[in-house]
Amino acid sequence: MRVAIVHDWLTGMRGGERVLECMLRLHPSAEIFTLLHVPGSVSPLIEDRPIHTSPLQQVPFAAQRYRYLLPFFPRAVEALDLAGFELVISSSHCVAKGARVPAGVPHLCYCHTPMRYLWDQHGEYFGPGRAGRLARVAMAVSAPGLRAWDVESSARVHRFVATSRHVQARISRHWGRESSVVHPPVDVERFGPAAEREDYYLMVGAAAPYKRFDLAAEAFRELDRKLVVVDRAAGRGASSRAAGRGASSRAARSTLPPNVEILRSVTDEEMPQLLARARALVLPGIEDFGIAVVEALASGTPVVALGRGGVLDTVRPLDGGDGGYDGGPPTGVFFERPTAEALVEAIARLESHRFDPSALVAAARPFGVERFLAELSAEVDALFAAARAR
């Protein structure tokens, strides 16, 4: 069976690209279609597949400034030629789900999220102080048309699969579509508890406004604790401009408290020890799922997080509430208000409790790679069963 996988862009290895790797394990002969590709920016498993790009690949400096081309993304993804394929899977957090699929070809969308910057997190990206005046004006002009296309193109998908209950609710709210949930794959076997823990907290992720690095920095300004921030935007394939943009660069240009350190060159091999030795992983923003959360739990490290979004599927909070599991030992602490004061108070509650590393590791196991492969394969089978029934 000829399989096409449509992925928004290939410019670095982050959570979406880890999911793509697993999709390629499930369909080893699949071909990849994407808006643009920076050669060498992703893993050999992805680089070794046939990669087809959109007309945006020919735009000068597109690899460094592709986010400025957002108004052109819909037409570019619709230009991808998917003729001759028998199954299309889109891995979408932007426009991949809007690819035009030939009549009669089943299309499954694995949705990481509807576009945050168009919908409920628009203010996080384009509110006062979040973007330049020109960017805000351009988005105000283009957003209505982009939203209309986003809704219209969602009707082209035959079956939606969401990364979490949070994303499932957003798919329903913005597109009026039902979806099932298959949590992203996490290579939990790479992680494990360390013999000794060090005196620092850890925050991990590509620099983006919704990560709320600013809130974490403000909280740790009031704490006699060290915060280490791993900026994954500065990893393999990230341009110097991309590595220096976003929330962490804004903080770096201001006066950071001396107890906050930003790391921009952490390798995949170094991450397990960083996670295992941390006192806790800090998540001050709303994550769609949060792969780093499961990696932390697999390392025996608890999580302190804003109690919204994907963490509701993965973390059992110390004080009860809407966590990902019924019963069982706690694996972290939630705070309910996105303020520095609430985060400071949550860290105090976390430090008053002794978490069982073995219970945290056990809580991470259900999110492994083999589980993802089995569940996504079942979703593809259900897609074809529905197609036969039509």
Quick structural gist:
It is built from 15 helices and 13 strands. With 390 residues, the protein is of the alpha/beta class.
What's the main sheet like? 7 strands, parallel
CATH superfamily label of the largest domain: Glycogen Phosphorylase B
CATH architecture of the largest domain: 3-Layer(aba) Sandwich
CATH class of the largest domain: Alpha Beta
Q: Please give the share of residues in helix.
A: 25-40%
Q: Please report the number of helical segments.
A: 15
Strand % is 5-15%
Succession of helices and strands: EHEHEHHEEHHEHEEHEHHEHEHEEHHH
Query: What is the C-alpha radius of gyration, as a whole number of Å?
Result: 21 Å
Instruction: Identify the strand order in the major beta sheet.
Output: 3-2-1-4-5-6-7
CATH topology description of the largest domain: Rossmann fold
Low-confidence stretches: 235-253
Q: How many domains comprise the coordinates?
A: 2
Q: Average pLDDT across residues?
A: 88
Task: Report what the structure shows.
The protein is α/β, with parallel strands linked by helices and 390 residues long. The protein folds into two domains: 3-185 and 369-389, Glycogen Phosphorylase B (Rossmann fold, 3-Layer(aba) Sandwich); 188-367, Glycogen Phosphorylase B (Rossmann fold). The chain has helices at residues 15-26, 44-47, 62-65, 73-78, 122-126, 133-154, 165-175, 213-221, 240-243, 246-253, 271-277, 291-298, 340-351, 357-364, 369-389, and strands spanning 3-7, 31-34, 51-53, 87-92, 107-111, 159-162, 180-181, 200-205, 226-231, 260-263, 280-283, 303-306, 332-335. A seven-stranded parallel β-sheet has the order 3-2-1-4-5-6-7. It starts with a strand and ends with a helix.
